[in-house]
Design a protein that fits this description.
CATH class of the largest domain: Mainly Alpha
EC number: 4.3.1.17
Number of strands: 7
CATH topology of the largest domain: 2-methylcitrate dehydratase PrpD
Shape: globular
Catalytic activity: L-serine = pyruvate + NH4(+)
Number of helices: 16
Organism: Turicibacter faecis
Keywords: 4Fe-4S, Gluconeogenesis, Iron, Iron-sulfur, Lyase, Metal-binding
Structural class: alpha+beta
Strand order of the largest sheet: 3-2-4-5-6
Strand content: 5-15%
Pathway: Carbohydrate biosynthesis; gluconeogenesis
Bound molecules: iron/sulfur cluster
CATH architecture of the largest domain: Orthogonal Bundle
Helix content: 40-55%
Order of helices and strands: EHEHHEEEEHHHHHEHHHHHHHH
């Protein structure tokens, strides 16, 4: 598995696969063809279908400024390697092609070149299943955070920065008012929910909702967020962790360890299944975030490794089959509410797991495989194309 730096990334929302990945690719291509007079970016499949609502064209043009970029949309053209494909072409001043590059935005802001196998990405963790991780921890008497620090000893400082940025985004979201950008005129709710949380001290669920909403609303308006594991699902982990810190007094140090545990779960899902809504639907985004957050909550509450794994399993299992159908392609409906509900669900998953003796029938490894297969079986209209589900019915209304 890769470094947690590849999972928790900092960038502008609203979509890690539709804004962070393309921005990263545009920067790489621009540096390869510094002499180019202009560029073209051809967006395929899901990147084209929801690119406008997800601000893909805006971010590519902004990244390649001041050079002009022509954006070509090909939503009906799905490339077999991954539904989020893009091709960059560089031109000289006579519009002669200098070179091109096909690249895929595979979720969480990561990009892969055409032909590059996923397992060629540098790995630093030697294990790739939760069962292996649990066994290594058992033999060495490690917690799950010990496991992360053992193989990535310098990650703590980075996670501290990640926690800081998550908190900044949350604070910005709690004071913001008005509606979110786009034709839905979607009203912000975080500030109002937070006021209700303060008026109902001890109602943890309202606090969790308000914090998750604050981050998700900032994401929807293109603010800086942390992919956890994606921009679309960025409200879940900070929502539940900061609410628990406020209610139960955990230190930042404890939250950083919890982020390491959540990151381990996210890394396993990314390695064995997918965190890309375009590939497997929202079960890979909000489902994965809920699974990560559930493990983190269980860890914070002092659960055993097995109970943390069980919490993560519950968090993912009960999002199986969840489609991605954003209305008008904006990361707003159903995304924002979904983050708030999943943050609370992560808390419930941890609580449920900890009420048991740890024995459970389905393992996290099994549910990850199930999620991947279910995602591949989903019709394209339910995988970030805004052509089915809520997106279709809202448009018809
Ligand atoms: S429905 Fe889920 S996967 Fe789709 S854009 Fe919204 S948050 Fe992302």
């Amino acid at each position: 598995m890769e470094s947690l730096r590849e999972l928790y990334k900092v960038g502008n929302g609203p979509s890690s696969s539709h804004t962070m990945g393309p921005a990263r690719a545009a920067k790489v291509f621009m540096n390869r063809y510094k002499e180019a007079a202009s560029f073209e970016a051809i967006l395929y499949g899901s990147l084209a279908a929801t690119g406008e609502g997800h601000l893909t064209d805006y971010i590519i043009i902004k990244t390649m400024e001041p050079k002009p970029v022509k954006i070509t949309w090909k939503p009906e053209d799905f490339r077999p390697f991954h539904p989020n494909a893009m091709k960059f072409i560089a031109y000289d001043e006579n519009e002669k092609e200098l070179g091109s590059w096909t690249v895929y935005s595979i979720g969480g802001g990561s990009i892969i070149e055409e032909g590059q196998a996923r397992d060629e990405v540098p790995t630093i963790y030697p294990h790739s299943s939760m069962n292996e991780v649990l066994e290594v921890c058992r033999k060495n008497n490690w917690t799950l955070s010990d496991y992360v620090y053992q193989y990535e000893p310098d990650i703590k400082e980075y996670l501290g920065e990640i926690l800081k940025i998550m908190r900044e985004t949350l604070m910005n979201g709690l004071v913001a008012e008005g509606t979110l950008p786009g034709k839905l005129n979607y009203p912000r709710r975080a500030k109002n929910f937070y006021e209700q949380a303060k008026a109902n001290k001890g109602e943890l669920s309202i606090l969790i909702y308000s914090y998750a909403l604050a981050v998700s609303e900032q994401n929807a308006c293109g603010d800086v967020v942390v992919t956890a594991p994606t921009c679309g699902a960025s409200g879940v982990i900070p929502g539940v962790l900061f609410a628990l810190q406020e209610e139960e007094g955990y230190t930042d140090e404890q939250l950083i360890d919890a982020l390491a545990v959540a990151g381990l779960v996210g890394n396993l899902i990314k390695t064995n299944a997918s965190i890309s809504g375009a590939e497997v639907g929202c079960q890979g985004e909000v489902g994965s975030a809920c699974s990560m957050a559930a493990a983190a909550v269980a860890f914070l509450k002092g659960a055993s490794n097995l109970h943390c794994e069980y919490a993560a399993e519950i968090g993912l299992e009960h999002h199986l089959g969840m489609t991605c159908d954003p209305v008008y392609g904006y990361v707003q409906v159903p995304c924002i509410e979904r983050n708030a509900v999943a943050a609370k669900r992560a808390y419930d998953a941890a609580k449920y797991a900890m009420l048991t003796d740890g024995y459970h029938t389905i393992t996290l490894d099994q549910v990850m495989q199930t999620m991947k297969e279910t995602g591949l079986d989903l019709m394209a209209k339910y995988r970030e194309t805004a052509q089915g589900g809520l997106a279709k019915h809202f448009a018809e209304c």
